[in-house]
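C-ALPHA CELLS:
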Amino acid sequence: MIDLEVEYNNRARVPEHPQIFARWVREAAHIRSQRQSEWALDIAYGSGERQRYDYLAAAGRSAGATLLFIHGGYWQSLGKSTFSQVAHGAGSHGIDVAIAGYTLCPDNTIAGIIKEIQMLIAHLAKRSSQPLVVAGHSAGGHLAAVMAACDWTVIAPDLGFDPVAAAVPISGVFDLEPLIPTSINAKLGLDAREAEAVSPLFMPAPRGKRVVCVVGGKESPEFLRQQRVFVDNWGQRGSAIRGVELEGADHFTVVDPLSDPDSDMTKAIVSLAVI
C-alpha cells in the first residue's frame, strides 16, 4: 500500500530544504538588487493583502509573450519575493516576467486561489495586450495547468483573445484526490468532490497551445506518476503536451534552471514566448 503522507511530503524527502530555501531568498534579493531599475514590486491586481505581483520589465524587451511565474508551497506557504531569481533566465532574453502572489490557505480555498490567478492573468493581459506563458512550481505547477485549461471566453470575454499562450507546469499535482488523507489537507479542506473540481487532470485538455511539464528525476514515485498520467491523459485528448524529467533534480532544485539564461528550461520558455 502506498504511503501517501510519505510520497507527498517533499520537505521530509529533501532534508536540506531549509538550506535551499535560504539560498532562494539570497538569490532573489540579489537579482532584485542587480536589476533594480527593471523591477516594479508589490503591484496590486486586487484588494487583498497578498493580491500583489512583482514585475521585471526586461531591458531590451523583445516582442512576444510575458512570463508569469506562480510559486508553490502546497497553496499554503512561501511567497513571491522568494522567487525573484526565476525572472533572471527569461528576463535576460528580453522577456518581461511577472511573479505572482496570492492569498494562501486556510485563509483561502484552492478554488479561490484559482480565481485570484485568473484575475491576475486578465490584469496582465490588459496591461500589455499580449498573451502569457504561465509557469509554476509545485502548487504553482497545478495552477499553471489549470490556467491552460480555462475557457477565457467565459472568464474574461472583454479581452477578445486567449491570454494563455502556453504553460510550463513544474513538479505539479494534477489530481488532488491523493492529498485528501494526508496532513497537507488540514489547511486545504478538500473533499472528493472539491478535489476533482480543481484537478486539471479532469479539466478540458486545451488545444492550440503548448504545454511542457517538467518533473525532477529524484522526486517521489507519486510525483513521477502524476506527471506521466497527466501528460498521457491530455495528450490522448488532443493537447500539444510533452513531459520532461530533469535528471538529478529533486522537488526543489527542479526550479533552479529558470534562473539560468542558458538552461534548457529557460530556452524552452523563450521558444514558447515567441508568438
Remarks:
- The longest helix spans residues 110-128.
- The chain has one domain: 4-273.
- The domain at 4-273 is CATH 3.40.50.1820 (Rossmann fold).
